[in-house]
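Subject — a protein and its fold
Fields — amino acid sequence, structure tokens
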Amino acid sequence: MTTLVHVTHEAVQQAGGIGTVLRGLITARSYRAHCQRTILLGPLTEPDSAQPLGPDGEILYDASRSIRAADVADQLSAVERKFGVRLVYGRRLLTQDGRRASPEILLVDVSRPPERLNEFKRDLFLHFGLESHRYEHHWEYEQY
């Protein structure tokens, strides 16, 4: 089974062109013929929203709301504990020109940086030479 993960700040809310591109791509017959599983990974932009996956979304996992309907609930819970983050997981309906697709959505609450963020940045430097301090003033760098 082919799985594709798209990392985007428009996993739920379309703010610009990439959301349109992803909707067209994910609903295309040729894409669906070659990719059986699509995951949109992005930030949880509205942590207190009643519909964090949008009005056409279905929440399958959100520990803060005691929702654990996903088959992967135990694994998501383990990630939350290990990295000190909140995750919201589910599905969202995408439509384009009569075509429909329901990709999985995984949102990470970025409103409170995890305790281990600096440790992660240190590892990026040690293993890849990435100097995080040069980019920390860009909100997207901190977010992703």
Summary: The chain has a mean pLDDT of 88.
